[in-house]
Design brief:
single chain; 261 residues; alpha/beta; 2-enoyl-CoA Hydratase, Chain A, domain 1; six-stranded mixed β-sheet; three-stranded mixed β-sheet; 9 strands; 15% strand
C-alpha cells in the first residue's frame, strides 16, 4: 500500500512507521491520520509483525496538528473531524494488541506528544524536547493528554505541563516518567530498534495479553468517554476571542493578549 505521509518497513518482527512530512516538521494532518488508520489495520492483520516502532523523518518527531487545521477550527467540523480522525486513530494506537514504541528522534509538540502518549513505551534522543503548547492558543490538548498524562506523571505535574505550555528536555521527561530512556542522537534509532527487536522475539500472545492487562489495570476512567468531554470543552474554546487572538498572534509573531472572552 502506497502512502503520501508515512513510510513503512518491516524486518525481524518489527514494523517501523515513520511520519514523513519533514518539510512540515511532520505536522499531523487529516491525510496522515487516514493513512495511519489504514496502516494500523494492515499491521494488525500481519502475523509477521509483533512490535510497532513509530518515529519521525528528519529533525522532528511531530510538530503537532498542522497549522492549517488549527487556524480554521469551527465547532461543527471540529467535532466531526475530532471523532473521525484524531480520537479514532489515537485510540487505535493505544488499543493495538501488539506493543508499540514511540522513538522521539526530535521535538514532539502538541499532538505529537499526545500521539506518543498512546504508545506503550517512549524513548527519546538526547536533543528531543516535549511540549504541549495548546494553552498559548486559548485551547487545551484535545487528543488525550488530559486523560493519559496524569497516570504517567501525576495530576500536579500534568497540570503544570498543560497549563503553562512550557517545554521539557528529554532528560526531564525521563525524570518525570513520561519517557522510558534517553539515548545519544547518534545511533538513536539503532538503540530503540534493538529494544523493539528484543521484544519481537518474545511470545506474541503473552506480549498482547500483558499489555492489555496493564492498560486495563491503570484505566480508572473510560478514555473514550473522557475524550467526548474533551471534545465538548474544545468545541466551546474555539468559539472564544482568546482562541482567535492566540492564532492571530502566532501568525503575527507577537505575544498574545488574552482577555478571558
Amino acid at each position: 500500500m502506497d502512502f503520501q505521509t508515512l513510510l513503512y518497513e518491516k524486518a525481524d518482527g518489527v514494523g517501523r512507521v515513520t511520519l514523513n512530512r519533514p518539510e512540515k516538521l511532520n505536522a499531523i494532518n487529516y491525510e496522515m491520520l487516514e493513512e495511519m488508520g489504514a496502516l494500523l489495520q494492515e499491521i494488525m492483520d500481519d502475523e509477521d509483525v509483533r512490535v510497532i516502532l513509530l518515529t519521525g523523518q528528519g529533525r522532528y518527531f511531530a510538530a503537532g496538528a498542522d497549522i492549517d487545521i488549527l487556524s480554521k477550527l469551527e465547532p461543527a467540523s471540529f467535532r466531526l473531524n475530532q471523532t473521525r480522525y484524531w480520537n479514532r486513530v489515537f485510540c487505535e494506537w493505544e488499543d493495538m494488541k501488539k506493543p508499540t514504541i514511540a522513538a522521539l528522534n526530535g521535538p514532539a509538540i502538541g499532538g505529537g506528544v499526545e500521539l506518543a502518549l498512546c504508545c506503550d513505551l517512549r524513548y527519546a534522543a538526547e536533543e528531543a524536547t516535549l511540549r504541549l503548547p495548546q494553552i498559548d492558543f486559548g485551547l487545551v490538548p484535545d487528543a488525550g493528554a488530559t486523560l493519559r498524562l496524569p497516570s504517567l506523571v501525576g495530576p500536579a505535574t500534568a497540570k503544570e505541563l498543560i497549563l503553562t505550555g512550557d517545554p521539557m528536555s528529554a532528560r526531564e521527561a525521563v525524570r518525570l516518567g513520561l519517557v522510558n530512556r534517553v539515548f545519544p542522537q547518534e545511533g538513536f534509532l539503532r538503540e530503540v530498534g534493538r529494544i523493539a527487536g528484543k521484544m519481537a522475539r518474545k511470545p506474541p500472545l503473552a506480549l498482547g495479553v500483558g499489555k492489555q492487562l496493564i492498560n486495563k489495570g491503570i484505566r480508572k476512567a473510560d478514555i473514550k468517554a473522557g475524550l467526548e468531554e474533551v471534545t465538548d470543552a474544545q468545541s466551546f474554546l474555539i468559539t472564544t476571542e482568546d482562541y482567535r487572538e492566540g492564532v492571530r498572534s502566532f501568525f503575527e509573531k507577537r505575544e498574545p493578549v488574552f482577555r478571558g472572552k
